[in-house]
Automatic annotation (TrEMBL):
All residue ranges annotated as the Amidohydrolase-related domain in the record: 41-352
Top-rank lineage group of the source organism: Bacteria
Alphabetical keyword list: Hydrolase
Species of origin: Nocardioides ganghwensis
InterPro entries cross-referenced by the UniProt entry: Amidohydro-rel (IPR006680), Metal-dep_hydrolase_composite (IPR011059), Metal_Hydrolase (IPR032466), Metallo-dep_Hydrolase (IPR051781)
Protein name: Amidohydrolase
Gene3D superfamilies: Metal-dependent hydrolases, Urease, subunit C, domain 1
GO molecular function, one term: hydrolase activity, acting on carbon-nitrogen (but not peptide) bonds
A Pfam family the protein falls into: Amidohydro_1
């Protein structure tokens, strides 16, 4: 296979370089006779740290629809996906070199009748740890718990399980070598999860200063999915009539959302970008989440890092190092100065295969 040359400033440092792709791998050794495949700003393959392949509004999708979701994500530059829970078995994606790298969380685990229909294993507290261990064995090193959801009995957001059940589940997943993350909109569920050593929090709108300090102390990560949080006013409006307390909670959480996420960022909680594609959101829109992180106050270089080099490092996948798989995206402008270019990559290179616009 002949060598291809890509030329331009390479992020994160922006130093202009010639990057060569030989047999699907990156080298900075000059390759005489290499064709220049693209020039522009070169960014390590984008990462969608909260996305759902094989899921739509109604539950699991068939393989054809799932494939299209993965293609949409890839063409949007997301070449590594941490799937935050799927009701479909998406293991086959690992065998497809043309689809993004995938780190699966198995299926969501929720309390009985306390989550979106057809999404989760819905279990009782006594069953939670066993399901956590099962999904740890089924996934790719992560599991996903539904930390809280509306309780129709209480008429408000409430933890899905008692703190002790969560602790046992986290211990069970850790014993299987898997990390644990949880969907958390409200405050109540968070102290127990963070104290129990959960690895990551999804959404995190209920964080307070003391919990942010605890996350820093424990090394807990945060994937806020700001685009998903922007739907809180819709949830509040939908619940207003029957669940006014819930509507008020969602309204309050949303009013504080930018300040909450920025307090975590400023305290040093590592934040990553997640589009929540498939979780009632479209696929292929990691660019939208980078823009949303900037909108709430995260500097553009860091927001892009949250969707690229920082997230790759967190998830244990190489960046643009010598010998690494050639997974990167080329843009015709500097995305740090003009985020809108993230929507129109010039070239997406996955496992050394370049796809042009
Ligand atoms: Zn989600």
């Amino acid at each position: 296979m002949s060598a291809q040359r890509f030329r331009g400033p390479v992020l994160p440092d922006g130093e202009a370089r010639d990057l060569y792709v030989v047999d699907g791998r990156i080298t900075y050794e000059p390759q005489p006779g290499a064709d220049t495949a693209a020039e522009g700003w070169i960014v390590p393959g984008l990462v969608d740290a909260h996305c759902h392949l094989g899921l739509d509004d109604f539950g699991p999708t068939d393989a054809e629809a799932t494939e299209q979701q993965a293609i949409d994500d890839r063409d949007g530059g997301a070449l590594l996906i941490r799937d935050a829970g799927s009701a479909a078995d998406t293991r086959w994606i690992h065998d497809r070199d043309d689809l993004p790298r995938l780190i699966r969380c198995g299926r969501h685990i929720a309390a009985t009748k306390r989550y979106i229909r057809n999404y989760a294993h819905e279990v009782e507290p006594a069953e939670l740890a066993a399901y956590a261990a099962q999904e740890a064995r089924n996934g790719d090193g992560w599991i996903k718990l539904v930390g809280d959801w509306i309780s129709r009995d209480e008429g408000d957001l409430a933890p899905s399980f008692p703190a002790e059940a969560f602790r046992d589940a986290i211990d069970a997943a850790h014993a299987e070598g898997a990390k644990v993350t949880a969907h958390c909109f409200g405050h109540g569920v968070l102290p127990g999860l963070i104290e129990a050593g959960i690895d990551c929090i999804e959404h995190g709108t209920g964080l307070t200063e003391d919990l942010i300090d605890a996350m820093v102390a424990h090394g807990t990560r945060l994937v806020p999915t700001v685009m998903q949080l922007d739907k809180f006013p819709e949830h509040a409006a939908a619940g207003q009539e029957r669940f006014p307390a819930y509507a008020q909670t969602m309204t309050d959480l949303y009013a504080r959302m930018p300040a909450t996420i920025m307090a975590a960022y400023e305290a040093g909680v590592p934040i990553y970008a997640g589009s929540d594609g498939g979780g009632i959101s479209r696929h292929g829109n990691i660019a939208g989440e980078v823009e949303a992180l900037v909108r709430i106050g995260i500097p553009a270089h860091d927001a892009l890092g949250a969707a690229s080099w920082r997230a790759r490092e967190w998830l244990g996948v190489d960046g643009l190092t010598e010998g690494a798989s050639a997974d990167f995206v080329v843009y015709d402008r500097n995305p740090v100065e003009d985020l809108s270019v993230l929507r129109t990559p010039t070239t997406v290179v996955l496992r050394g295969v370049a796809r042009g616009r």
